[in-house]
Amino acid sequence: MTLVQAMPALARSYDDVVASKFIEIAVYKDFPPYSYRDPQGAEKGIDVELAQHIAKEMNLDLRLRWITPDETLDDDLRNHVWKGHYLGGGIADVMMRVPYDREYSFQTDEFGQVKNDLVHMFAPYQKERWRVGFDQDQIESLETLAVLRYYPVGVETDSLPDIYLLSVFNGQMRNQVKHFPDLMAAFEALSQKEVAALMGMQGQLQWLQVQHPEQKFQLATVALQGLHKLDWDIGLAVHNNYRQLAYALGDVVEAAAKNGVIEKINQKYGVSYLLPDLYKTTQ
User: Fold this and answer.
1) Residue 8: band (very low, low, confident or very high) from pLDDT cuts 50, 70, 90
2) Domain coordinates of the chain in residue numbers?
3) End-to-end alpha-carbon separation of the chain, Å?
4) Is pTM beyond 0.85 here?
5) Does domain 14-127+233-280 match CATH 3.40.190.10?
6) In this protein, which residues make up the domain named Solute-binding protein family 3/N-terminal (predicted)?
7) Residue closest to 81 by CA, chosen among 132, 117, 41, 38
């Protein structure tokens, strides 16, 4: 039996993209409210609608690449931005929902080499934030995080909330942390009274709140003491060789962030829009 290794996929320059009359944008599969298909198969989500806006502003057709997350974000960037999966399938012109974070961009491996030196991360379009939501049928009010020492809390396995809640208060919450494959599954458990609270991204929690008005689900304003990073900016990524494409995309995204386009998209999904720090300093 002979195994044939797929050749590295080739990224496309700005000129290649324009000449082809389409742009391929990678979004995560089954990731509401950012990118998903509704029961009728229609493409929905904040990232999907922003991708549509980008393509329209650049006078290009849009091709969405629906991707399944690998073990790490580094793997996703390798598979869909600069190299391609070893099984083949090519790469996208741009990937969405990538951290716009200098510390992450210049992370090094055990040999001191920058892990993602072939990736350019740019154009923040949204700030995301960690929040806690709770079921008012089970918890009347949540004034402090310490209350959750006495209630089961749902988190996505191996997420930052998972790690945080296992260690906060010197591990006193460890036995109350319940693990789920994603926040949607955790919310289903909450609706069945199997957990009393959730910790996850604000956008997802707000979307779940809007989607399930029958649930007495509220977001708390409790302080998350000791959390290394409460919020972070989300942006785009392209192959590092193609900065001209990044400049064109960045102009569209910056205008959409400043003129209210992205805020209106977020409002459609019940999500509060948090403007990235970059545009707060340049307005």
Assistant:
1) low
2) 14-127+233-280, 129-219
3) 61
4) yes
5) yes
6) 22-273
7) 117
Measured distance CA(283)–CA(269) in Å, rounded: 26
Name the token pair of 129.
Answer: 């934030």
Backbone angles phi, psi at 38, to 5 degrees: -80, 175
Burial of 169 (0-12, 13-18, 19+ CB in 10 A): middle
Q: Could you tell me which CATH number the domain at 129-219 has?
A: 3.40.190.10
How many whole angstroms from its chain centre is CA 153? Answer: 21
pLDDT digits over 12-51, tens only? 999 999 999 999 999 999 999 999 999 999 999 999 999 9
The single residue listed with the structure tokens 């929905």 is 44
Contacts of 135 (CB under 8 A, 6+ apart): 190, 193, 196, 197, 215, 216, 217
The candidate with the shortest Cα–Cα distance to 220, out of 196, 193, 189, 195, is: 196
Question: 212-223 b/e with 16+ CB inside 10 Å = b?
Answer: eeebebbbbebe
Q: Which residues contact 41 (CB under 8 A, 6 or more apart)?
A: none
Confidence of residue 9 (pLDDT cuts 50, 70, 90): low
